[in-house]
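Section 3.1: Structural characterization of target chains.
Under the original work plan, the team committed to producing a structural model for every single-chain target entering the pipeline before any wet-lab resources were allocated. The record below documents one such target. The sequence was received from the expression subgroup and is listed exactly as submitted; it comprises 431 residues.
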Amino acid sequence: MPRNKLFVFMIDALCTKDIEYMKTMSGFKYVFDRGSYVKHIETVYPSFTYPCHCSIITGNTVKKHGVPHNAKLEMENPNAEWYNQRSDIKCPTIFDYAKKAGYSTCSLSWPVSGGADIDLNMPMIVPIGYMGDDPGQFLVDNASKELLDRYYWKYGRYLMGAGRSLDEFTMALAPDVIRDYGQPDVMFVKMCDLDTAKHTYGVYSDESYEQLRKHNHEFEVLLESIRRYGDLEHTNFVIMGDHGQQDITMNLNMNVLLKNAGFIRTDENGKIIDWDAYCHSVSLSAWVQLKNPEDTAMKEKVHNFLKGLMDDPQYNIGYLFTKEEAEEKFGLVGPLDFVIEGKEPMSFSADMIGTDIFEKHLPKGWHSSKASHGHLPWREETTTFIACGPNVVPGLVIERASMMDEAPTMARMMGMTMEDVDGSVLEELIK
């Protein structure tokens, strides 16, 4: 008797409000017509790409998986190294459970998976800003040698130069892998460009809906590949997002505010010479780090300063959490002593250039200016989880669930149990 399989199609920045439009598209409609979905998936905090992807495959919050941000934050360094190695994740993933259960595994363009023990692994690891002609240097010893030997000579060109496209590279690889390997038992494929479109043009822009239609056509190709070369009848399909996005109208330069209040001292060139508190941007939220957390008087002074910002409507601060509250409420740990977020969607800058406290654009280094994420788990836009297959109950709409529930639920589809995780199996979804 054939064993059931799992095929996951990840669409970066897929939002709850995309669902009704997706139902009209022939590829996505295949899953909606045969399956069930969770309307609102509340993400890990922060709703940032890499922490979310780690939570999706581990079922855990940041405190347990260990990846709090896309980048390994450093003072005054917008080009800090990003998390990219499987060793950065401090707990088992669904791929580890699948390998132990004897399933073949494949992961294409998944973040924080360099060097992972996955049979066929092509990680998302080429630096986002790299525009050179040798992206292969980042894949050697991080991707599966077999995949590199078999496909990179043919498809590596999609990662080269100013017109590079990770999605085109992924979509060149994925159908060939399904054909050449007869569809791995557990296969995750990640697409990026909806996130880029929403950052650039806005969450509800025509360009974003056009990109969603493109992802539908890509899914149709993969669906047909499984129909031709895999085992369609025995495949559990999941279409998911990693976070929502919010349109924004305001940016707050927090480090300029901290400097003006005397918590940061700079030389005549604006370079920091000493500091008591420093802000790290998480786009739609921000972390304020103390130089000496044991200095209780300074800690109270900074806390009172932040509470004062909340009381002044011009700054639009709606949420303030201490380090202890962030850990207790959200399982969030990292280089932080306080977390702040806007009352209405707004971005935060860590930039020290200039004296402008308010800007009408995202700070340099983020994708663009219209929309972003990093916000609290329950705020609009949330993301979603859509599934069908032999182990999925059809016809259900679950209103709300946690991102941490996704890994144990997908594992259960495959007859596996993930232990000691922060999430729970969505039992009503499983046959």
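The longest helix spans residues 206-229.
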